[in-house]
Structures are given as structure tokens and as C-alpha cells.
């Protein structure tokens, strides 16, 4: 296998199939499948969506990527038999991937190879000679609705998009296509609205700038027939931000059948309407003044920006002002600012962590919407540091201004066996209440006295002792209404006898402005999580980033000396004030999961409590280019439901196992496959694969 001296990422996703041509250029049963010098199986890909660019290039899929696809090679077989088995596996699949380029160390020639490969079954309407067109999919968000999107198409507006370089046109010169999917269309499993004749002017790191529609050119608006469209299209990433569509679907005959035209955009000169603009931008300016709580400099900055926006608005047309609001709204969003601060802190020289961006956003959303979040993983992966970095980003970690009870990291001791170890006890001999040295009680008292301050309590190595013993009261009261979350410190009957009962009353409220986070190692020195704990928490297993990616972070910036402005509890709660009910499709998905799990594990399933927590999490998930509703949905399945899948091989065999070809199979896998419109479920599949391997090796999955 060639080793690359340098690597570059063209930044574009490709779709392709196994290229079964042999060295003579003729198709054969095992053409394009190679056994490398180390005995590993690899194969060649043929790109289907960039006609001509890779006609004379070989796109290698190296043995490690073959393994990552879930294919299990048996080296005991003969070479030809191994190739035939892989050929059977590849012949049913289509692949979406990145192409990386580098120089071979052997001969200095260009070397192209595929990475980040996503495998999908070939659709019913797949034709071997198909060429595909890449179409970007724009999703409705709080900052972008369909009207704003259409305004941007016509007037040359800027719209956020995760990978601007992905727009392409057909080889016959048709204009580019784009799709907009509303929340309602997404909920009903529809693909959305197709726009035909779109022109792109430019693109930056995270936006596409459309070409203003000339008076003589119209953009055709089409309603996609989802049933027919699904026979040929493929979604190209976890965020479902692009789709690959056969070029023949976009030619006039099939296009009119599969996506009927419902209207046109453009072709009419626009008149200016300055007055409404000032009103709309003033609204945006008012919103921007609320961005950072208790941060005078930041507020002054936003006020100045708001004044400038109003001045500019007087010179703009209605559609131009709308475009300005679309592009500026994300910058005015306090939650995205917090996520940026969190990212900067994690990546700083002081913290030195290397984590996936989506995992950071997922952690933030979990803490925001759950009273208890648990981080699990290998020892030394930075779980405690992540929580500290989050406190730093919230502005509640005081390094220069003395001590603060707003962030309290408590180290759990193996000897703890009841809540007296965590909270303290009543010393009736000396008529005093003795608070524990954990400092938790002082944090709760302080939080009750300062309801607009946010507090974060961390239980470090939470499972060194049995959580259900020392944290038992909290597990019960956190499920109650906020005003009923009372922790008992001692009997009320002895309250008059204690000298310090005025400071430490018999009962103390766990206020809403306190969030709890636990870190857990998974090894022989710790206790396993109980179903009770899993049901009451969001359990996050941090993913390991490839070691080579850490090298790219060698030159880490230092944090600025001044602290981040503190975010109040009120401002923090404003980030989680959305509500939406699960759709009937989502509810049906969870019901099928629940039924399947309960058939194999009678005492395990999805409770109403779990369903309510998932609903709250999804309703308040921040939307970024990569962290979409589909990604958030996958996180919740992996974090709230799959941790409950535990037991012996006999108990779980129907749910998950490897089939004879080494493919992940079982009832849970079937449910995920049947629900591809909700998510591609890459995280959930990895969790199931790990559990299937545990069953295979140990006979038990934990």
C-alpha cells in the first residue's frame, strides 16, 4: 500500500461504485479488487458524479477502510475466494466518500484514495451507467424560512450552507438545482421543494451567495414526488445537506414526471420599499441587544451594530434587507456564541483537547435540557477537562477573582455509601449539623440565594461508589416539579435543637439553576450503571478522534486573559424554551424500538420519562451546518436508548448479531435501516456494532 507524503482535501463529497474493470480495461468478476503487499484486501472506486475529472484516475479504498465498511475478511481462504467474497459484498452497494490526494513516497506520483466512506444499498432504480448530480438541501431553521430562501435565490442573497463547494450542474448544461425542505415536509418524510435554474455567484466557508436573477431568467419551482424520487436518490451526509440524483431524473421527461412544476421565481424587476425595512431591521437590532447578559461592552457593541443596520436599511430594498437579516441573524444568536466560546476553550493551549465539534454541541444541548448528564469513556480522554472548559465558556469559572460556588467539582470516594457522605449529617451529640467536605450543600444554599446565577456541579469518577446509594435522594427528587425538589438533611423534629439550623435547615431545595454532570470511567475499578440511572440521565460516550488529527492542533492559541462574560441562568434557560412534539413518524420509530427491546428484555424499554426527555432535547437542539435535526436524533437514540441494551448472547441475539458475511444484523438494525428518513444513524450503528463484538468475544454486552 502506498503511503502518502502529503494530503489535501478537495472538500467535496463523491458518489461511486466498485470499479470492476481489470488491468486490461475489461469488466470481470473480481476486477478492481487487489491484495496488497501486506495481504490486505482493497478495491478501486468509480466516481459517478463528476464526469471526466477522475476518468483516468484510480480511487483506492485501502484495507482499513474496507474493514471500516463492516466487511470481515477471512485470510484463511484462497486469494481468489477472498476476492469473490468481497465482490459479492461490493456488487450490492453504492458509496459516498471524500477523495484525498497526495504524493506516493515510492514514485512521487499523484495518489488518490477514498476516506470517510458511507455505504448504502443500491436503490431499486439504479442503473450501472448512471451519472449523478449533487444537489444541496437547505433546511428550515429559526433564521431561514422558505420565503427568505426564495428571496435570496432571486436577489442574490447569502444563505448558510455547510459545504458550499457541493453545488454542481448536469453535464448537458442545465442550471444548478437546489432543494429547500421545510420542517413540515421533514416531519412528513417528504424531500422538499426543488428549484431548477439556480445560479451561484460565490461561496465562502459557510455560506452560498446566489447570482441575482436577471429579468429574462426564471427559476422553476417544483414539487418533488417523494415516492418516485426515493427510487433513485441518495442522501450524501449525516446532516442530509446534499443529495445525489441520477442525471436522467433531471432531464425534461422524467423531471416533469418526478418533480412537477408549480411556479416560477424571478423575471420581474423589484421595487424599493424602504419603510418596512427599517422596521424589520429594528426588530433584529432589538433582538441583538439581548445577546449577552450582564456584558456592557458586548451590549454596547451590539447597540452600535444595530444603529448601523438601521442606517443602511434606509438605502435597501425589501428583499435586500431580508437578505441582510438572514445572514446576520446567526451572529446575533447567543447560543451560537456560547458554542463558539466553548469550542475556543476546548481547543486552547490551556486545555489541549481534541474533540469532534458535534460532540461539543451535543454535550452543551444535553446539559441545557437535562438536569443530569453523564460523560463516559476511557480514562484519560479529558472528560473532567471538558466540563471545566464548559464552565469557563459560561463565565462561571473564577480563576482571577477568588472562589466561587458556581462551579463545584466533587471527587467521589469509593467508601461512600449514603448521602451523608455527599451532604453531611446531624451531630445530635453536639447539637450541630456537620456539612460534608464536598461543598455541595454550600453550592445549593448559594444557588437558592442567587436564582439568576447558573451553577454547575460535577461528580468526578461518579461510579467509583454506587451512585444509587450516595445520590439516591437526588435521583428521586429531580423528577419532581421544581418547587417540590426538596432534599432531606435530617428530621424536622430535631431542627430546634441544632445551633446552626438557621444556616442548615432540615430540608433544602434543589433549585432550577443547578445542573449536574457526572464523569465515569469504564474499567474493573468502577460500578456498572443501573437502569434507574440510565433512565434519568443523558449518557454521552465521547468518541476518540484519530491521533493524527491532534497533530493539526499543535499550534493551539492561548485563551484571552479576560474571562468570558458570565451567562445568567435566565439567559441560559432562554436557550431551551422551545417546544415541539415528536412527529407520528418519530413516535412510530420509538414504539417499534420499544416493542423489539421489550420482547428480548421484558423489564427494559422506553419509558414516558425517556420519551419526554428526548422530545425536549430535540426541540432545543441548536442548528449548525453539521449539527442538524437528523444528527441530534441519532445522538438521542445512541445515548438514551441503546445503553439499556445489556445482557448475554442468548438474551440479545435477536436484537443484534453478525450474520455469516460479517454484516451487522438483527431487529434493531432492521429498524434503523427502515427509518433512514429520520437519520442515517452512524453513531447508533457504531454502538450496536460494539455491543455485537462484546457478545461475540465475551458472550455478554454491557
From TrEMBL:
Residues annotated as signal peptide: none
Residue intervals of the ATPase dynein-related AAA domain: 374-536
Region Disordered, annotated ranges: 1-23
SUPFAM superfamilies, per database record: P-loop containing nucleoside triphosphate hydrolases
Any GO molecular function: ATP binding
Gene3D superfamilies xrefs: P-loop containing nucleotide triphosphate hydrolases (3.40.50.300)
Pfam families reported for this sequence: AAA_5
InterPro entries in UniProt: ATPase_dyneun-rel_AAA, P-loop_NTPase
Lineage: superkingdom: Bacteria
Name of the protein in its database record: ATPase dynein-related AAA domain-containing protein
Lineage: Bacteria, Bacillati, Bacillota, Bacilli, Lactobacillales
Amino acid at each position: 500500500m502506498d503511503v502518502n507524503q502529503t494530503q489535501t482535501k478537495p472538500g467535496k463529497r463523491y458518489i461511486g461504485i466498485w470499479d470492476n474493470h481489470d488491468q486490461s480495461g475489461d469488466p470481470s468478476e473480481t476486477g478492481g479488487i487487489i491484495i496488497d503487499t501486506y495481504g490486505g484486501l482493497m478495491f478501486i472506486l468509480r466516481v459517478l458524479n463528476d464526469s471526466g475529472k477522475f476518468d483516468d484516475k484510480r480511487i483506492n479504498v485501502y484495507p482499513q477502510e474496507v474493514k471500516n465498511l463492516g466487511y470481515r475478511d477471512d485470510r484463511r481462504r484462497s486469494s481468489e475466494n477472498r476476492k469473490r467474497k468481497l465482490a459479492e459484498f461490493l456488487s450490492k452497494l453504492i458509496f459516498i466518500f471524500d477523495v484525498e490526494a497526495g504524493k506516493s513516497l515510492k514514485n512521487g506520483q499523484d495518489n488518490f484514495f477514498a476516506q470517510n466512506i458511507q455505504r448504502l444499498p443500491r436503490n431499486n432504480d439504479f442503473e450501472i451507467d448512471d451519472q449523478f448530480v449533487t444537489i444541496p438541501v437547505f433546511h428550515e431553521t429559526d433564521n431561514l424560512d422558505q420565503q427568505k430562501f426564495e428571496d435570496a435565490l432571486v436577489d442574490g442573497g447569502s444563505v448558510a450552507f455547510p459545504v458550499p463547494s457541493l453545488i454542481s450542474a448536469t453535464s448537458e448544461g442545465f442550471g444548478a438545482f437546489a432543494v429547500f425542505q421545510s420542517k413540515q415536509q421533514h416531519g412528513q418524510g417528504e424531500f422538499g421543494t426543488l428549484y431548477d435554474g439556480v445560479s451561484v455567484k460565490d461561496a465562502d466557508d459557510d455560506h452560498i451567495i446566489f447570482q441575482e436573477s436577471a429579468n429574462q431568467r426564471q427559476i422553476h419551482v417544483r414539487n418533488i414526488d417523494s415516492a418516485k424520487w426515493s427510487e433513485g436518490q441518495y442522501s450524501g451526509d449525516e446532516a442530509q445537506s446534499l443529495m445525489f440524483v441520477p442525471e436522467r431524473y433531471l432531464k425534461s421527461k422524467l423531471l416533469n414526471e418526478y418533480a412537477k412544476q408549480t411556479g416560477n421565481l424571478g423575471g420581474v424587476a423589484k421595487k424599493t420599499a424602504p419603510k418596512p425595512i427599517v422596521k424589520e431591521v429594528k426588530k433584529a437590532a432589538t433582538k441583538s441587544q439581548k445577546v449577552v447578559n450582564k456584558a456592557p461592552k458586548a451590549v454596547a457593541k451590539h447597540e452600535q451594530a444595530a444603529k448601523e443596520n438601521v442606517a443602511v436599511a434606509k438605502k435597501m430594498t425589501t428583499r435586500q434587507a431580508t437578505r441582510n437579516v438572514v445572514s446576520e441573524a446567526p451572529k446575533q444568536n447567543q447560543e451560537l456564541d456560547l458554542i463558539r466560546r466553548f469550542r475556543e476553550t476546548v481547543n486552547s493551549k490551556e486545555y489541549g483537547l481534541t474533540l469532534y465539534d458535534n460532540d461539543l454541541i451535543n454535550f452543551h444541548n444535553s446539559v441545557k435540557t437535562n438536569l443530569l448528564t453523564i460523560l463516559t469513556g476511557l480514562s484519560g480522554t479529558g472528560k473532567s477537562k471538558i466540563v471545566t472548559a464548559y464552565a469557563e465558556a459560561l463565565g462561571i469559572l473564577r480563576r482571577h477573582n477568588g472562589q466561587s460556588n458556581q462551579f463545584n467539582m466533587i471527587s467521589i470516594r469509593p467508601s461512600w455509601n449514603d448521602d451523608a457522605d455527599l451532604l453531611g449529617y446531624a451531630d445530635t451529640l453536639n447539637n450541630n449539623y456537620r456539612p460534608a467536605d464536598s461543598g455541595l450543600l454550600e453550592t445549593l444554599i448559594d444557588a437558592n440565594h442567587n436564582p439568576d446565577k447558573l451553577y454547575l456541579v460535577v461528580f468526578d469518577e461518579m461510579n467509583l461508589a454506587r451512585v444509587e446509594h450516595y445520590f439516591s435522594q437526588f435521583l428521586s427528587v429531580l423528577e419532581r416539579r421544581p418547587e417540590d425538589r426538596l432534599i432531606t438533611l435530617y428530621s424536622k423534629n430535631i431542627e430546634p435543637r441544632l445551633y446552626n439550623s438557621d444556616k442548615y435547615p432540615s430540608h433544602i431545595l434543589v433549585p432550577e439553576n443547578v445542573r449536574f454532570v457526572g464523569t465515569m470511567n469504564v474499567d474493573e475499578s468502577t460500578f456498572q450503571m443501573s437502569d434507574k440511572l440510565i433512565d434519568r440521565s443523558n449518557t454521552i460516550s465521547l468518541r476518540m478522534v484519530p491521533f493524527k488529527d491532534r497533530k493539526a492542533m499543535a499550534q493551539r492559541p492561548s485563551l484571552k486573559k479576560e474571562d468570558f462574560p458570565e451567562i445568567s441562568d435566565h439567559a441560559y434557560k432562554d436557550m431551551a424554551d422551545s417546544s415541539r412534539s415528536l412527529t407520528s413518524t418519530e413516535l412510530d420509530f420509538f414504539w417499534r424500538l420499544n416493542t423489539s427491546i421489550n420482547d428480548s428484555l421484558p423489564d427494559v424499554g422506553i419509558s414516558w420519562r425517556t420519551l419526554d426527555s428526548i422530545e425536549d432535547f430535540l426541540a432545543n437542539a441548536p442548528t449548525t451546518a453539521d449539527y442538524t435535526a437528523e444528527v441530534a436524533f441519532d445522538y438521542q437514540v445512541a445515548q438514551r436508548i441503546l445503553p439499556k441494551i445489556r445482557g448475554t448472547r442468548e438474551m440479545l441475539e435477536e436484537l443484534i448479531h453478525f450474520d455469516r458475511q460479517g454484516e451487522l444484523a438483527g431487529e434493531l438494525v432492521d429498524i434503523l435501516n427502515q427509518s433512514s428518513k429520520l437519520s442515517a444513524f452512524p453513531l447508533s450503528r457504531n454502538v450496536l456494532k460494539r455491543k455485537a463484538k462484546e457478545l461475540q468475544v465475551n458472550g455478554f454486552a454491557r
